[in-house]
């Protein structure tokens, strides 16, 4: 167990490494290994453990109404999986989680995690903060998926990434990663980017994206 890395996990943040080691020595847990493209969990499967990626990364995907696979996000070490679904009436994984590469995952049974929450107030506080943040993220994701056209999705992404203060930013995602995020094909996304440049809404130079007309981009969303 890499306790130094675990201390960076949102659930264990702010707790000294030696204290994390002492706490985990008081409970039962497992470390599971996965290879690239192995299924970690299936959508609809009951959540029985707090899962924390401690090496590598995984991706969460769901199938939309048309049968298309939509990537929700990539999750890298040392982040937890579906922490907000540990408890509640419908405590099932909302997405299928697949390994992007070689992955190690710490699995703490719910009953054992409850012990940790009772043993350390900081873990309890961290956990509550983590699930609140996840609820906010999912709310934003649902809002994003409500946009009907690729152009609306792109406009929303660009405006959100640039923020209110800036007109330019460095695009960290590849076009394929963005296509996966939007649930569209790469050629369709490339076509929309090309159209938006011709309409002088944006300018793309290598990895730098400049929003030339924020007002028109906002109009796209209001009229969608």
Based on the model shown, name its key terms.
4-stranded antiparallel sheet, 11 strands, single chain, Arc Repressor Mutant, subunit A, alpha+beta, 224 residues, Jelly Rolls, 2 domains, 8 helices
Description:
The chain is α+β, with helices and mostly antiparallel strands and 224 residues long. The mean pLDDT is 90. It has helices at 3-6, 17-24, 110-119, 121-145, 150-162, 175-182, 186-198, 214-222; strands spanning 30-34, 39-41, 49-55, 57-63, 69-76, 80-81, 96-99, 103-109, 168-170, 202-205, 208-211. The protein folds into two domains: 3-145, Jelly Rolls (Sandwich), CATH 2.60.120.10; 150-222, Arc Repressor Mutant, subunit A (Orthogonal Bundle). It has eight helices and eleven strands.
Topology:
Blueprint: H1 3-6, H2 17-24, E1 30-34, E2 39-41, E3 49-55, E4 57-63, E5 69-76, E6 80-81, E7 96-99, E8 103-109, H3 110-119, H4 121-145, H5 150-162, E9 168-170, H6 175-182, H7 186-198, E10 202-205, E11 208-211, H8 214-222
Helix pairs in contact: 3-4, 5-8, 6-7
């Amino acid at each position: 167990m890499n306790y130094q890395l675990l201390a960076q996990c949102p659930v264990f943040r702010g707790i000294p490494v030696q204290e994390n080691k002492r706490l985990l020595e008081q409970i039962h847990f497992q470390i599971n290994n996965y290879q690239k493209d192995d299924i970690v969990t299936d959508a609809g499967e009951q959540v029985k453990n707090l899962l924390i990626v401690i090496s590598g990364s995984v991706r969460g995907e769901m199938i939309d109404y048309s049968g298309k696979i939509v990537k929700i996000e990539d999750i890298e070490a040392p982040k937890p999986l579906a922490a907000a679904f540990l408890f509640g009436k419908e405590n099932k994984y909302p997405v299928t989680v697949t390994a992007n590469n070689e992955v190690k995952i710490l699995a703490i049974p719910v009953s054992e995690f409850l012990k940790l929450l009772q043993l350390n107030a900081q873990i309890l506080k961290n956990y509550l903060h983590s699930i609140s943040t996840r609820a906010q993220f999912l709310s934003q994701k649902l809002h994003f998926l409500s946009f009907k056209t690729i152009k609306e999705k792109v406009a929303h992404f660009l405006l959100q990434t640039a923020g209110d203060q800036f007109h330019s930013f460095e695009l960290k995602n590849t076009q394929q990663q963005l296509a996966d995020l939007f649930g569209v094909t790469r050629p369709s996304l490339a076509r929309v980017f090309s159209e938006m440049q011709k309409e002088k809404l944006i300018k793309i130079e290598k990895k730098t994206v400049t929003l030339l007309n924020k007002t028109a981009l906002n109009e796209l969303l209001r009229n969608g």
